[in-house]
Structures are given as structure tokens and as C-alpha cells.
Amino acid sequence: MQLTIQEIIELTGAKLVQGELSHTVSGVSSLDEASSEEISFLGNEKYFQDFLVTQAGVVLVPGNLPQQPENTILLEVENPSYAFAAVVKVLATKQRTVSLGVHPSAHIADDVVINLDKVSIKPGVVIEAGCSIGDGTEISSGVVICEGSKVGENCLFYPNVTVREHSQIGDRVILQPGCVIGSDGYGYELVDGKHTKVDQVGIVVLEDDVEIGANTAIDRARFGKTIIGEGTKVDNLVQIAHNVQTEKHCLIVSQSGLAGSSKLGNYVTVAAQAGVGGHIKIGDQAVLAGRAGATKSLDGGTVYSGFPARPMREETRKQGSLSKLPQLIKDVRKIKQQLDEQETS
After folding, report:
1. Is 242 one of the annotated active-site residues of the chain?
2. Strand partners, 194
């Protein structure tokens, strides 16, 4: 497939700042590898030098560039990365073909509420009693949906997903391979010298347009609900504990963890390997930088880093001061030595 410059402009709302409309592209690539028949984008200043020598036929760029390569068609857009994604969707991504119907090896309980002509159920799927599956949903091989769970419309479950009993999943939810929804919360009481399991009788609710990454675990509530809010995107290898609640459109990145009963406001970002302690709240639009550790509730609208998490500017100053500590110790020892010598003389 090919796209003309005019078609790319119509698709992305771009403005032509250099080059001819007659050119066409047939592929996508990075700035340093693209050919004259491919389109790329400049979305990060780290790649500006690659941009200046790129051989790409077309590059999507932000405005106000100090320099630009010759012989490359430049299309100015507000968000080059987002515009590039729109082009990829048309030009390079194979459209998923969904074959409706149920594979003979799938097991669906007799009382499941489902329109078999409007879903795609792949080999080895198990759907237990009392469940309901919305129209347009695709359930891949090896998925297990336990009793009483509700799945909305146009969802996509990749292979080997497990949805534990009575989970509630909204519309257009994507579950990546191997994730577990509704596993038992980590709850024990020390009784007579033994760790005794506390029953976890709540559920998990995934609201509309949520995506859960591969091998991520979201625990069912001890009682009540663990809730992942509308539009929230959870990366691979994330642990979300019992009774956690997130509001809308949060980003929770790989290897991070949310402890029991913690709460995230709207548009909170929890970066890689960051942690949120139990029973605390992170305010709207707060950002926990990589490896930050929140041990108390934090206000929204601020970037936090370090352990315990504190505003990034404060943490940066602290780390800067600590880096000077070895030299400061040497200076103090030298001064002490001089004073000692003066006293003995």
C-alpha cells in the first residue's frame, strides 16, 4: 500500500513546510534507518542529529525547527508521535481479522449469556457458569473466565488470560497475554505463630477502555471492589493489590506496584519500578518518577521522585548536596588536621 503526501496531510492535519505533494511512501521506519520511500517522525530532541542526516522520504516534525535536512519532505504537526501512529495504523499495521463464532474445543457453560454469532471464541477457551460476554468481543486461545464474570462489548483478550470469578469488565477492554484479573489479595493474620489466610471475597472492576499488560496481576478486593478507572493503561509486570482504586486515564508503568487500598486520582502517572504504599492517595495529575516510593498521601499536579517520594526539585537538590558530601568530609578532615597541628605546636 502507498500513501501520497496529500493523503497523509488529510489523515494527520499536517502542514507542508518543505517538498512536493506528488511524492508517495510505502513504509515506516526510524530516522536513522528510513529510506526515501518511508516516513518517519521527530518526536524527541535526542534524535535531532539523526533528523539532520535522515534519508527518510517524509518526516513529521514539530514547529520552529532551528535546522532541517535538504531533500526531505517535512510535514509540520502538533504532535509528531501521535500523527505517526495514525499513519502506521493505515500504512503498516495489519488489520486484525476476526472470525466470528466458537471453536469446537472451547467450553462454554449452558447458562452463559452470549450471542455466538457476534463473538470470536478461540480454541481451548473456558467460560464458566453465570458469565455474560458482550457482542464483538474476541477471546483468544487458553483464556479462562470464571463463574459469574461479566465482559462488555468489543473487548480483546489475548492468549492465556485468567479472569477470576465475578469480575466485571467494561467495553473495549484489552487484556494482554498472561495477565490475571481477580487473583486473591495478599492477606494474612498471624495467629498462634502461623500466617493464616484471610478470605478475599470482593471483586475486580475494569471500566471502559482499560488496557492491562502482559503478566500483570490485579487482586480482587478483600471485600468490596478493586477498581481500575476508565481509560487507564497498565503496563506489563505490574502488581495492583486488593481494594486499590484508580480514577480515569491513569498510566501505570512496568514493574511498579500499588499496595492495598491505595487510591490514584485522575491522570496519575506511576513510572517504572515506582511504588505506592497502602491506604494513601495520590492526587490528580501527579507523576511518580521511576523508582519513586510514595509513603504518604501526595498532592496532585506535582512530579515526585526519590524515596520517600518528594517534589522532584527538592529531591534533585538533595541528591546534588549528597554528591558533594565525600569532598566535604575530606575538607573537614583537613581542617581538623590543621587545627590539631596548631594545638600541638
Report:
1. yes
2. 191
